[in-house]
């Protein structure tokens, strides 16, 4: 049986020739041959295969999903990476410019991320299955916009130092053509500038021929914190078609997490508010209450959830204060902030100030994991039902040439 053409990304010629030879010898298509190998990889008792290392990665991750590769852009301290690794992902490349985040990332993952993404050539980034990026939030966040309005500074895509980083990301997507993209940002992204910012982001990705799914998800079902973030998932139409069966995850079953569960039994007294600061926060809240505003400190319900942990938490901790009997309330310790975000008990290697900033800017890994599991289901679906030549790449057309992937005229659309 003649074998159909193969487009496995980055396969050496000798391996390609071996696959074609085996297909001819066994009189099977490449699809049948690859599925046989992968099925065999899931049954180690039947002997070693080419995919042993992949199967080991999946087993280590604690799931039976097909392993995949990803890159981690605007990586922060690795919240996206932790979620993707939990479902079998293998990180091939990371980028984060902040030196304090780099220090944490190295301590947690054993590597220093590449620096400024604007100085990295897209062609130097390895091929990958999933592009993950928590691109900068400040130009589109409510707090960031308010601050920049007060200072008379531009925001959104008019902010050339931050907003246009999205287009750096879009250029990488255009050049590398990852089958899947996973982006994360603040909830306000969709409403910023009357919806114009979101319209440009969505249309840019769709012009690059990705099927886009987006949803604002609240992490409160996974961690005891109100934390809403938008997730944007894109599937290359040339790989998955126009209707990949993706759905965002449902909230986990079982009792809701409680704030008290993340607390240390005995926090250092230095985290208790001074009399001066506690009086200031109470007076500040009273003034705004009299004006009909909702500003003020947040005293946590120990059996409920907290407000959103922000990057400014190091200033006074006012949004999340822990009541204490017979004394002033206290702030979270850095370790408690780490647990409130759902990060594992990895070492904190930066100052308290930097730790609060890092956790306040991070994504909740458990939410990423839940979304990533849904992505993996689509990968499995594609492999088992829609594969026409090889893993995660579009088949060649009748003249033997790969399909042309259209992009926006003249490159990525800009405003």
Q: What can you tell me about this protein's structure?
A:
- This protein is α/β, with parallel strands linked by helices and 415 residues long.
- It folds into three domains: 13-50; 54-250 and 366-386, Vaccinia Virus protein VP39 (Rossmann fold); 259-361, DNA Methylase, Chain A, domain 2 (Alpha-Beta Complex).
- 36% of the residues lie in helices and 12% in strands.
- The protein contains 14 helices and eight strands.
- Strands 2-1-3-4-6-5 form a six-stranded mixed beta sheet, with helices on both faces. The protein has a two-stranded antiparallel sheet with strand order 7-8.
Rg over CA atoms, rounded to whole Å, is 24 Å
- State the low-pLDDT regions, or none: 1-7, 44-64, 389-415
CATH architecture of the largest domain: 3-Layer(aba) Sandwich
**Which whole number gives the mean pLDDT?**
81
Quick description:
The chain has 415 residues and is of the alpha/beta class. Helices cover 36% and strands 12% of the residues.
Key traits:
415 residues, Rossmann fold, DNA Methylase, Chain A, domain 2, 3 domains, two-stranded antiparallel sheet, 8 strands, 12% strand
SSE arrangement:
Layout: H1 13-26, H2 30-41, H3 52-61, E1 68-73, H4 79-85, E2 89-95, H5 99-109, E3 130-133, H6 142-150, H7 165-176, E4 180-186, H8 196-207, E5 210-218, E6 228-236, H9 237-240, H10 275-290, H11 313-316, E7 322-324, E8 327-330, H12 334-340, H13 352-361, H14 365-386
Helix pairs in contact: 4-14
